[in-house]
C-alpha cells in the first residue's frame, strides 16, 4: 500500500472490523464481494478493467483470518500497490471471466465448506459474475449456505467517514463551479448536446475524474418525453428563448459523487413556471429543515408533502412517494428518502434531496446535496436561488 492510496490503513481496517461485527450478529462466516464499489470500499484497489464486462474480481472477507483478493494476473501488481490487503491470488487468463475455482479453493482452505457465506444477492445490487459461474460455485460448494450480505455493505457505506465527506465535498464544489460557467455561457442557439458537453468539460477541467450524470429536461408542451420522463439524454435540438431547462449534473472526485439539479429559464419565464419553482423551492427547504440525526427518513418526505399541499397542490402531493437518495461511491445509494422508509438518520449520512412538481402548464425540479451533522444538516451544494433564474 503506497502514499496515493484512497484512505489510510486504519480506515480500511476499521471498515473490515465493523463488517465483522455485523457478520457475527448474523452468523455469517465470510463475505464474498464482487461489485466495483464494494471492492474499492473494502480493498482500496481501483482497477480500470471494471469497464470490461469480461473481467471479474473478487474479495473474500472471512470472519476470522486474513482477507483475500482474487483477481486476474494483470491486476495483481496493482493490488500490491493500491490495496492494504496482503493476500492476493490470481486465476488463469484463459478463465478471466470466472475465478470460480480460486474462490472454491479459498473457501475450502478456510474450512468453510459447510459455512454460511454472504454475497451481493439483495436488492439494488447485482453479482458481478455470470449466473452460470455462480451456479458452478454453488455446485462446487454444495454444503455452503449462500445468503445475502448486501444490506451489511450498504449499512457500513451509509455513514461516511470524515475523509469520505471531504471527497464528496470536493466533488460538489466541482459541480458548483461547472454550473456557474453554464449559467454564464448558456444562450439561445446552443444545442442540448453543447449545453451538456459544456458541463462535462467543466467538471473535468476542475479536477473531476469523470463527469457523471449530465442529463436535462427542457419543458416542451405536449412533448411525450417531458410527460413520461423527468430527465433524458441530450439531443441536437437547438434551445430557444423562453425555454425552461431542468439540468441534472454531477461528477466523480477520487471515487465519490456529486449530484444535483438546477432549473433556469432562457430569456423569459411564464408565471406558471415561476410559481412552480417557488413551490418546489419551499418544499426543498422544508425537507432540509427536517433533516437531522435521530429522525426517520420519512419525516423529510412528510415535510415536503405538507408544504406542497399547503401551496394548493394537495392532489400532486398525495402521489409523492420519494424525494431523493443517498450517494457516495455510487450516484444512487440507499437509504432512499421514501414515504415509508423508517431508517433513522445518523451523522455522516449524505443525501441528495430532490422534490419536483408537474402541473398542466409547468414542471420544476430542484435538488441539494446535504450532509447529516451531529445537530442538523449542512447543505454541501451552492444553494439554489429562491426565485427562478432567468438567464
Would you spell out the secondary-structure blueprint of this structure?
Layout (H helix, E strand, L loop, with lengths): L8 H18 L3 E4 L2 H8 L14 E5 L5 E4 L1 H10 L4 E4 L9 H10 L6 E4 L11 H10 L4 E4 L1 H9 L3 H24 L6 H14 L4 E2 L3 E4 L5 H5 L15 E6 L1 E3 L2 E2 L2 E6 L5 H20 L7 H13 L3 H6 L2 E5 L6 E6 L11 E4 L2 E3 L4 E3 L2 E5 L4 E3 L12
Note down, in words, how this protein is organized.
- With 391 residues, the protein is α+β, with helices and mostly antiparallel strands.
- It folds into two domains: 9-157, Creatinase/prolidase N-terminal domain (Creatine Amidinohydrolase, Chain A, domain 1, 3-Layer(aba) Sandwich); 162-379, Creatine Amidinohydrolase.
- The chain is 38% helix and 20% strand.
- The protein has twelve helices and 19 strands.
- It has helices at 9-26, 36-43, 73-82, 100-109, 131-140, 150-158, 162-185, 192-205, 224-228, 271-290, 298-310, 314-319, and strands at residues 30-33, 58-62, 68-71, 87-90, 116-119, 145-148, 210-211, 215-218, 244-249, 251-253, 256-257, 260-265, 322-326, 333-338, 350-353, 356-358, 363-365, 368-372, 377-379.
- The protein has a six-stranded mixed β-sheet with strand order 4-3-2-1-5-6, with helices on both faces. Strands 14-13-15-18-19 form a five-stranded antiparallel β-sheet.
- Helix 4 (100-109) packs parallel to helix 5 (131-140), helix 7 crosses helix 8 and helix 10 (271-290) runs antiparallel to helix 11.
- The relative contact order is 0.10.
Amino acid at each position: 500500500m503506497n502514499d496515493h492510496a484512497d484512505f489510510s490503513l486504519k480506515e480500511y481496517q476499521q471498515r473490515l472490523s465493523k463488517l465483522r461485527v455485523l457478520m457475527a450478529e448474523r452468523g455469517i462466516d465470510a463475505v464474498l464481494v464482487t461489485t466495483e464499489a464494494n471492492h474499492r470500499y473494502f480493498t482500496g484497489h481501483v482497477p480500470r478493467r471494471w469497464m470490461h464486462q469480461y473481467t471479474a474480481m473478487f474479495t473474500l472477507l472471512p470472519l476470522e483470518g486474513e482477507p483475500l483478493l482474487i483477481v486476474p494476473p494483470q491486476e495483481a501488481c496493482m493490488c500490491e500497490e493500491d490495496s492494504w490487503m496482503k493476500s492476493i491470488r490470481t486465476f488463469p487468463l484463459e478463465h478471466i471471466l470466472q475465478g470460480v475455482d480460486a474462490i472454491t479453493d479459498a473457501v475450502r482452505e478456510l474450512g468453510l465448506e459447510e459455512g454460511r457465506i454472504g454475497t451481493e444477492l439483495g436488492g439494488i445490487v447485482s453479482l458481478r459474475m455470470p449466473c452460470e459461474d455462480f451456479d458452478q460455485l454453488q455446485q462446487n460448494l454444495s454444503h455452503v449456505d449462500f445468503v445475502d450480505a448486501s444490506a451489511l455493505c450498504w449499512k457500513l457505506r451509509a455513514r461516511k467517514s470524515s475523509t469520505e465527506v471531504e471527497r464528496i465535498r470536493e466533488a460538489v464544489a466541482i459541480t458548483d463551479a461547472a454550473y456557474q460557467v453554464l449559467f454564464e455561457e448558456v444562450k439561445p442557439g446552443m444545442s442540448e448536446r453543447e449545453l451538456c458537453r459544456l458541463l462535462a468539460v467543466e467538471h473535468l477541467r476542475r479536477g473531476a475524474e469523470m463527469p457523471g450524470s449530465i442529463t436535462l429536461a427542457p419543458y416542451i408542451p405536449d412533448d411525450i418525453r417531458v410527460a413520461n420522463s423527468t430527465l433524458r439524454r441530450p439531443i441536437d435540438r437547438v434551445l430557444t428563448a423562453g425555454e425552461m431547462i431542468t439540468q441534472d449534473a454531477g461528477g466523480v472526485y477520487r471515487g465519490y459523487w456529486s449530484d444535483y439539479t438546477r432549473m433556469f429559464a432562457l430569456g423569459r419565464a411564464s408565471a406558471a413556471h415561476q410559481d412552480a419553482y417557488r413551490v418546489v423551492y419551499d418544499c426543498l427547504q422544508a425537507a432540509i429543515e427536517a433533516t437531522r440525526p435521530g429522525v426517520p427518513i420519512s419525516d423529510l418526505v412528510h415535510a415536503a408533502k405538507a408544504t406542497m399541499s399547503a401551496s394548493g397542490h394537495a392532489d400532486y402531493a398525495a402521489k409523492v412517494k420519494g424525494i431523493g437518495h443517498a450517494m457516495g461511491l455510487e450516484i444512487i445509494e440507499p437509504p432512499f428518502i421514501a414515504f415509508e422508509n423508517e431508517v433513522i438518520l445518523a451523522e455522516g449520512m449524505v443525501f441528495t434531496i430532490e422534490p419536483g412538481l408537474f402541473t398542466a402548464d409547468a414542471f420544476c425540479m430542484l435538488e441539494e446535496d446535504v450532509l447529516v451533522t451531529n445537530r442538523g444538516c449542512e447543505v454541501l451544494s451552492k444553494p439554489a436561488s429562491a426565485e427562478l433564474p432567468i438567464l
